[in-house]
Amino acid sequence: MRKKFSIVGKPVVRRDGLEKVTGQAKFADDINVPGQLYGVMVRIPVSHAKILSVDYSAVENHPAVAAICHAGDIPGAKKVGPIKQDQPVFCYDKVVTPGDVIAMLVGESEEELLKLRDLVKVEYEPLPVLTDPLKALKSDAPLIHPDQKSNLIVHHRLRKGDVDAGFAESDYILEQTYTTPFIEHAYIEPEAVIAVPREGDKGVHITGSIQNPFTTRKIVAKVLGFPLAKVRIQQAELGGSFGGKDDIMNILSARAALAALKTGRPVKIRYRREDSILESYKRHAYHLHYKVGFNKDGKIKAMKIDVVADGGAYSSMTPFVTWRTVVQATGPYETENVWTDVRGVYTNNPYTGAMRGFGSPQPIFAQESIMDEIAIQLGMTPDEIRRINGFKPGSVTATGHKLENHDVNLLTVLETAVTKTGFSEKWKKNQRRGKMLPDYAALEEISANPGPFILHKDDFLEPDEVYRKGIGLAVSFRGCSLGAEGVDAVAAYLSLQQDGSAYLLSGLAENGQGMRTTYSIVAAEVLGISPDDVFYLDLDTGYVGDSGPTVASRATLMGGGATRAAAEILRSRLENVLRQHWNLPENACFVFRDRQVYAENNPERKIAFAELCDLAYNQAVNLAAIGWYAGPKVHWDETVGQGPAYFTYVYGCQVAEVTVNIATGEVYVDRVVAVHDPGTVINLLGAQGQVYGGVTQGAGYGLWEEISVDKGFIRELNFDQYLIPTSKDIGEIVPIFVEGEDQYGPWGAKSLGEPTLELTAAAIANAVRNATGKRFFHLPLNLEEILLSKKLHPTSKNRGSA
Amino acid sequence: MKKINIRFKVNGRQADLNIAPNKRLLDVLRDDLGLTGTKEGCDIGECGACTVVLNGRAVHSCLILAAQANGAEIITVEGLTQNGELHPLQKNFLEHGAVQCGFCIPGMLLSSYALLKENPHPREDDIKEAIAGNLCRCTGYKQIIQAVEAAANENNE
Asked: How many CA atoms lie within 13 A of A267 on its CB side?
């Protein structure tokens, strides 16, 4: 290894693991405060309606109801949102999707309130329901938000070169359309929050399953009309988020805070799974149209891309999610001429926002499928076509960003994955077998006209012909952190104690990914102590600077940078103490390792780290520091979609090997080799965990998961119908890390969480193509998609045996 | 609703309760006994976060009325640590990086615990089967499976 570390890169047991394996960790619903009340939501079963009147008379004097909260109680902003403020905390004029909430009943017994909420009488006038974003864009479509000019949330344009000339010069043109469904985050912990009114002028204290406490604070303060400092948000142990406990938690926190201030008592809201899936936002469903011009030699000449993202009822993060799409939509391929339009659109479907991947899994599915089709058309292998077009150092992206000053590792990750799996040989062997999937289109006719159904000789399959092997790959590049989305800076507070132990707290939030441990390793590496000496504090917005949200795979890169900065400030102070103590010149250097500190050129001269802290303490040296890490400036011209969108990128390649049962349509993932370029691995256990988890989520996206909507109503409201992968569903996953020398973050550590997820569905789809000879255009590739090329949905909303 | 008296043993301790007959075991554990290590994730027996061991078998405490547990011996995650010593499963979950957000972990541990009681030498497929009713969204299960294997090997040494 080129890098010499004492702890970084090794497997480290997570610092917050003990409380989690003993059941002591306090998740939001495990916290109870004496005198607490519960909040229960009032909704109406309609996707789009004008509210005419709300009558609370049946419940307002009921002894079980301590308070009713509705829009009229809001002193500040009635509508909120991270970019456009279009989402009401409580609906008052319209309902635009079935998850919408009109009021909240507050009382001591959740059970009683659940019975009473149906007694609130809401009169409403149903309005036409828009569920197709393409139709919602038509000029005569009704407006979902009448204060806006159209149902268009955002339109990102990217214009580079001359696509018409590019297509004219191309030997071939391929045009295809792909779709991807809504996806539920499916964190296993449903949402929960408790708001406690504080004494006097202190405002409100909120503890909850909150992904982004500083965002939550902004929203709650706006709703209450409070200064930011009067709202303190503490993060409870977070039971998974994946981008999902942002907007929904901001709104639930605001409702709990309103009720707490109205009643003067603590108010808790905790969601059941059905509430959670009904009201929380999803990953965007995408409609992707790609037109690609290319030459006989495989070189891509032009790409025209038209993407429509279903934003659902509220804008949420749609403008940023779709921005990442417009930046990355061509994939990591040199293309002179690009014309991309990405539009986010309002519908009456559940609203969509941030989810792990954030606008990348959808275009990767389309772009990687098309690349394979181009390879097949030209008689090349998938790795060959990617070698020809893939980014190399100095390549220019679709946004006109010249890739330099970082490791442009695309071809390295590709070669690593291809070699590890023996890709080309396997792919060619499977490919030679040609088209093998039976044509079940005839089944349509049979079901329409069920008469005698006789199988012909050709319809039978020998048992050994049923299972078909396939191998497929997908590659990506991904901009790290927020890029031109906004302010990108993180704080870390590090406080050394007299005995050499330390407190650490960053303004980013532990989502379960292991961030606390990563930062403890970074601090320990700089100070030569053990991560076990570092005690991570509970995140509270009152104790550390606003560091923005924990999103965009930025925690290790940005928060790691801040932690390293804080540790270096303290180390430098300790070095000054030693120079004086040992009477060394100003340029004397020291080694901090194994809880010892010694002069670099004289290992005899050493002192225990604890002793050094004691020495500094007694000399009145400040042993607490705030590290700050701000991303370099990035630039974006939104009229043509050009500019260096992100300050650095990561690259990944995944190879999926599958077995397809062509009689049932079942796809089993035998193995995924996942090669990623995280810059520097900080905690090997954590990094591997990100790959295993991300690939598994990606496989769920590829094969099973789908939130389907029927006139705006979600069909899959619990895990009996929304199928996420179980322990039995996926074979081997092999994580491989290609490390580099990036200049940013702690020792060049970059992003990993999202890259691991974004590739898997595309790699699986290409493997299924290799196994069956058939291209699939619509995720997920479930049984009916494979057999019938369509999705079947139950016609009745009844669940279970009902 | 008329309350009923029930008693069972939780983590070796006798619990005497006077509860509504429609209370689920999950609610009694969390609300009446303060054992909040047992989690609520779906309420319909799909996610396994509420798994406890009842008379040696891993069960969903959200699908069992507390009264059904009358006279039973129950183990929750709080009962795995003995005399301050982590159970080999707990220790190996830590060492193998099997824990991310940790919400599913109590249920995972108890399904694995019940497996090892019944089958001290599980194959990988047995482990996958035993935890197939415990959903985890973070880990992709691989490090959990490795941890259970390691704990089994440790027990067998």
From this structure: 28
* Among chain B residues, CA nearest to A517: B100
pLDDT given at position A1: 42
Which residue carries 């039978």 as its tokens? A460
- Using alpha carbons, list the distances in angstroms from residue A745 to A409, A502, A637, A646: 17, 22, 26, 14
Backbone angles phi, psi at A628, to 5 degrees: -135, 135
- Measured between beta carbons, the chain A residues lying within 8 angstroms of B140 are 689, 691-697, 725, 730, 733
| Residue among A82, A54, A63 at smallest CA distance from A485 | A82
Cα(A148)–Cα(B105) distance, rounded to whole angstroms? 46
How would CATH label the architecture of B88-155? Orthogonal Bundle (1.10)
Q: Do A188 and B35 make contact, defined as CB atoms within 8 angstroms?
A: no
- Tell me what the mean pLDDT of segment A687-696 comes to: 98
Quote the CA–CA distance of A517 and A531 in Å, as a whole number: 7
Q: How far is A265 from A106, CA to CA, in rounded Å?
A: 10
Sign of the torsion formed by the C-alpha atoms of A342, A183, A783 and A754:
positive
Q: Is the pLDDT of residue B102 over 90?
A: yes
| Separation in Å, CA A207 to CA A216, A256, A452, B105 | 11, 10, 64, 22
Q: Does pTM surpass 0.95?
A: yes
Model pLDDT for residues A537-570, shown as the tens digit of each residue: 999 999 999 999 999 999 999 999 999 999 999 9
The answer to ipTM > 0.90 is: yes
A719 CB neighbours in chain B (<8 A) are 41-42, 44, 46-47, 135
Instruction: Please name the member of A30, A273, A512 whose beta carbon is closest to the beta carbon of B101.
Output: A512
CB A88 within 8 A of CB A79: yes
> What CA–CA distances, in Å, run from A432 to A436, A689, B34?
11, 36, 62
The residue type found at A204 is V
Domain ranges of chain B: 4-79, 88-155
CB-nearest to B41 from A18, A24, A273 is A273
pLDDT at A437: 66
Nearest CB to A21 within list B38, B76, B99: B99
Q: What angle do CA A284, A290, A292 make, to 5 degrees?
A: 150
Residue A794 banded pLDDT, cuts 50, 70, 90 = confident
| Closest to B102 in 3D by CA, of A676, A516, A704 | A516
CA A6 to chain centre: 31
Relative to beta strand A37-42, strand A103-107 is antiparallel
- CA B95 from centre of chain: 20
First to last CA, chain B: 53
CATH number given to B4-79? 3.10.20.30
Cβ atoms of A595 and A528 closer than 8 Å: yes
Cα distance between the two ends of chain A: 61
User: Which among B83, B89, B103 is the top mutation candidate for probing chain A, defined by the most A β-carbons within 10 Å of its own β-carbon?
Assistant: B103
Q: What is the pLDDT of residues B24-42, one digit of tens each?
A: 999 999 999 999 999 999 9
**CA separation for the pair A193, B36 (Å, rounded):** 16
| CB nearest A188 (choices: B37, B95, B135) | B135
**Residue A787, C-beta contacts closer than 8 angstroms, at least 6 positions apart:** A440, A664, A665
Cα A566 from Cα B31, distance rounded (Å): 42
B135 CA: distance to closest CA in chain A (Å): 6
Spatial strand order of the sheet with A590-593 comes to A590-593, A596-599, A602-608
CA-CA distance, A636 to A651, in Å (whole number)? 22
The stretch A269-292 carries a mean pLDDT of 98
Residues of chain A contacting residue B94, judged by C-beta atoms under 8 Å apart? 13-14, 17-18, 21
Q: Diameter of chain B by CA atoms?
A: 53
Tens-digit pLDDT profile for residues A460-497: 667 778 899 999 999 999 999 999 888 999 999 999 99
